[in-house]
Specification:
The complex is a heterodimer of chains A (about 550) and B (about 325). Chain A is α/β, with parallel strands linked by helices and about 550 residues long. Helices cover about 35% and strands about 25% of the residues of chain A. The chains are: A alpha/beta (about 550), B mainly alpha (about 325).
């Protein structure tokens, strides 16, 4: 009903045959869509699909050499594609507000938060220092920042990620715009924070009757939050329709793949692809974490300590996958670092096949490091850009003096086969590969020494859904073939469902809940787990 | 902030104490003998011994060092072995000249460097950038004594805009004093200006492409406000660090510049004292330079924390 009422509104934004190129390379191909007053529309696509370019074109803020080469962008009948920078300045902030993607990088670090909101108010023609401050505090309060009067005088680094995003929302609404563009506004935030912020944003937008253009890579999120979804790929609009149409009955092949791959939208994983239930009678666990604790001293704050990991215990059995789930600051990565021997525990132990990296002698430690190998989150940062792929994968073999030069070369080729990369990439360098390919290289490198345990720390979090899906499939496949054991550290519950057998849920350093995937997902006992599960977007379309 | 300052001051004191030992020993390792320098090559061994015992040079090094420190703490830096003038008087006469010169040069360098740096960023790929890049190239590659000679030849002798040499005390006659210092300050500041220019330009290019500048544009802010409040302010964090590292170079630069323009400054005093092995003066001069370095570093650290609020809070 509500949706019908919205669709009857008059057209606010009309994009017609929009084409944008970067230095002669076209990146948008005849993009056309309308946005009615009060309507909420999502643009969904993977990185490189052109969704952010659409935003840049509308605001006249294309980066670098980006130029609109064709088409029109009509906002209330005024063509933004033809507008001068001066005219656009009058439109930005006042008629179109932007909530940008990364709350960490979008606030001026050397300027008080209040002043940055005041700036937006002043540029919208508001005068009078006291009036501006009062309005800014109001906006902060509306955006859900407690104690706004005091926090007005704080700097961005004194705010958490979620709070910074609220500041950015306050800024975007300062000019009471008709259209709000939210460009991946919460992709850098934890799910529970994401939900709070989106709920809040929605309340604000609804109360003002503002139209919303919501740009995201997350189909589930788009389905939850908007009236209409536009799916983009390679600079074109592939499909558009209501969330029900797009998510439950996708017409185009690309959309179908996207829906299938989106873990959040396919929560009710079909039993066939469900991981096999682990057998009961099995040997000692590969990894045994017992009463693990880690305390950090806070620098410059005499005596203050933070309990990063607090009495954590769990077992991981051979050939299974255990996921450690938690939001930022839950201590999950510290656990991984302790297991890998990169950090020493304050108390407790993490035993790999009965021995601890932290306390064993150098020889055993070397052996344990061969058994347990890490794969990290950032496939860009964890590969030395000056090394060839062959050298990267070969490195652990060289460190452990395995085989001859020729046998190592053969092994690298084998490993490339295993992670489904063509052997020809061996002579290339990391920057020539895509994110997914790089993560495959990282996995190949981890497999080089034939480890038994892989510690995957947010190993798929930086990847697009389709790529993420491929990597997860690869991991499952490798587990089946090589009998690998995984410790899968992630903040993404939806991915857990897909890959893990057992789950350990962590919050502020403590284990909140453990159990098999089915137990935890279907009958969660801890409130925090329920909250996490409830915050996964797209649940409505899962059944 | 107060705790941060006191820690910094304490560190500075330790540095200074260590530096005084190094200076003291270092100078005595220099080839040459002050007694010979005073009495001349023809002096008899007895005469030299007499001079050495008068100057206390026959005492063991530790004794000499502690008596030096003891007198230093009382504000007594000894007397020039060459002229007999108290070293404090020599410093009082020459230091202000150099301080005025250095301060003037810094102002020139910062104003010109930052301004041209911003211009270079603003007009990338157009003629203002080429001019500013050309200036940077000259400032970095042409030695200051050569620039100084050219400046004297053209600006002072041919055009007669500035005096070619001479000094008027800025304290007693600020206008004339600064007028006399303008050419030396320009020459001394050129190298620093070029470094600041390049740093500002590079840093501005980076800052202006950050997300928060884009967000500021999306707010509808005007170009000037974005340029200064969002761009320059954050760029200066990097610039200040670099400038701090470069300031020390001003002292050695001042020695050359003072020589060219015949300024009765600290640089001249330094050179003269080294040539005559005037231990008390060299000691004092090097000590003053060390204190200068330490103070500059302290000032840069404080300035840095003022510009960058993240550091300020982190140190509390």
């Amino acid at each position: 009903m509500q949706q019908d009422a919205r669709n009857e509104g008059k057209t606010l934004l009309s994009v017609r045959d929009l084409e944008v190129s970067y230095g002669g390379t076209p990146v948008l191909d005849k993009v056309s869509f309308d946005l009615k007053q009060g309507e909420r529309v999502a643009i969904v696509g993977q990185s490189g699909s052109g969704k952010s370019t659409v935003v840049g074109a509308i605001l006249g803020l294309l980066s670098g050499a980006g130029r609109i080469t064709h088409g029109s962008i009509l906002l209330n009948g005024e063509d933004l594609a033809e507008a001068s920078q001066e005219e656009l300045r009058g439109i930005r902030g006042k008629k179109i507000g932007l909530v940008p993607q990364d709350p960490m990088s979008n606030l001026n670090p050397s300027m008080k938060v209040g002043a940055q909101i005041a700036d937006a108010l002043a540029s919208n023609g508001m005068r009078g220092r006291a009036a501006i401050k009062q309005r800014a505090v109001e906006l902060m309060t509306e955006a859900g920042i407690p104690d706004a009067e005091r926090r007005y005088n704080q700097y961005p680094h004194e705010f958490s990620g979620g709070m910074r995003q609220r500041v950015l929302i306050a800024i975007s609404l300062a000019g009471e715009p008709d259209l709000l563009i939210a460009d991946e506004p919460t992709s850098a935030l934890d799910v529970t924070v994401q939900r709070q912020i989106l709920n809040h944003l929605q309340t604000l937008v609804d109360a003002r009757g503002t139209s919303l253009l919501f740009v995201t890579h997350d189909l589930g999120l788009a389905g939850d939050r908007t009236d209409r979804i536009i799916v983009m790929a390679e600079g074109r609009i592939v499909e558009s329709g209501t969330p029900w149409e797009v998510l439950l009955n996708p017409q185009e092949d690309y959309t179908r793949r996207l829906v299938a791959a989106a873990p959040s939208a396919s929560l009710s994983a079909d039993p066939a692809s469900d991981p096999p239930a682990p057998e009961r009678d099995r040997p000692a666990p590969v990894l045994s974490v017992r009463n693990l604790a880690k305390e950090f001293k806070l620098r410059g704050q005499r005596g203050r300590r933070i309990q990063a990991v607090d009495d954590v215990s769990f077992d991981v059995h051979g050939g299974t996958t255990t996921a450690v789930v938690g939001e930022s600051g839950s201590g999950k990565s510290t656990v991984a670092r302790i297991i890998l021997g990169l950090e020493t525990p304050t108390s407790g132990s993490a035993l790999i096949k009965g021995e601890s990296i932290a306390t064993s002698n150098p020889q055993t430690r070397r052996a344990l490091r061969r058994i347990a190998q890490p794969v990290f989150q950032d496939p860009y940062g964890s590969l030395d850009p000056t090394f060839s792929i062959e050298r990267l994968i070969d490195e652990p073999l060289r460190i452990f003096n395995v085989g001859t030069r020729d046998s190592r070369r053969e092994r690298v080729a084998e490993l490339l086969d295993q992670v489904a990369l063509p052997r020809t990439v061996a002579q290339r360098r990391p920057h020539e590969l895509s994110g997914g390919q790089r993560q495959r290289v990282a996995i190949a490198r981890a497999l080089a020494l034939e480890p038994e345990l892989l510690i995957l720390d947010e190993a798929v979090s930086a990847l697009d859904v389709l790529v993420q899906e491929q990597i997860l499939t690869l991991l499952e496949d490798l587990q089946d073939r090589l009998g690998l054991t995984y410790l899968f550290i992630t903040h993404d519950l939806a991915v857990v469902r897909q890959i893990a057998h057992n789950v350990v849920v962590m919050k502020t350093g403590k284990v909140v809940e453990t159990g098999s995937v089915d137990q935890v997902f279907l009958a969660p006992s801890a409130d925090y787990t329920k909250e996490l599960l409830g915050a996964i977007p797209g649940a409505a379309f899962a059944s | 902030m107060i705790r941060y300052l006191s820690t910094r001051l304490w560190h500075s004191a330790i540095t200074l104490a260590l530096a005084s030992v190094v200076i003291f020993i270092g100078i005595r390792q220099l080839p040459g003998d002050p007694a010979i320098a005073m009495a001349g090559e023809e002096a008899s061994p007895e005469q030299l011994d007499a001079i050495r015992s008068k100057l206390g040079l026959d005492q063991p090094l530790p004794v000499q060092y502690f008596s030096f420190i003891g007198r230093l703490l009382q504000g007594d830096l000894g007397k020039s072995t060459r002229t007999g003038t108290p070293v404090t008087d020599l410093l009082a006469g020459t230091l202000p000249v150099t301080l005025w010169l250095a301060a003037y040069a810094i102002v020139v360098a910062v104003v010109a460097g930052v301004l041209l740096g911003v211009v270079a960023e603003r007009y990338r790929g157009r003629w203002p950038e080429w001019i500013s890049n050309g200036f940077a190239l000259i400032g970095l590659s042409v030695p200051s004594f050569w620039l100084g000679l050219l400046a004297i030849l053209y600006l002072a002798v041919n055009l007669g805009w500035f005096p070619a040499s001479g000094y008027v005390d800025v304290g007693t006659n600020p206008v004339r004093g600064l007028y006399y210092l303008t050419l030396p300050a320009l020459i001394l500041g050129t190298g620093l200006a070029a470094v600041i220019l390049r740093q500002t330009r590079a840093s501005m290019i980076e800052t202006m492409s950050t997300d928060y500048v884009r967000t500021a544009r999306a707010k509808g802010l005007g170009g000037g406000r974005i340029l200064f409040r969002y761009g320059l302010r954050n760029s200066l964090i990097v610039v200040v660090t670099i400038v701090g590292l470069q300031l020390g170079g001003l002292i050695s630069g001042a020695v050359v510049t003072e020589r060219i323009f015949a300024l009765p400054g600290f640089g001249k005093l330094t050179l003269d004292s080294v040539f005559t092995r005037d231990y008390p003066v060299i000691q004092a001069v090097v000590l003053v330079i060390t204190v200068g370095y330490i103070l500059i570093n302290l000032a840069v650290d404080i300035l840095y924390s003022v510009i960058n609020p993240r550091i300020r809070v982190g140190s509390n």
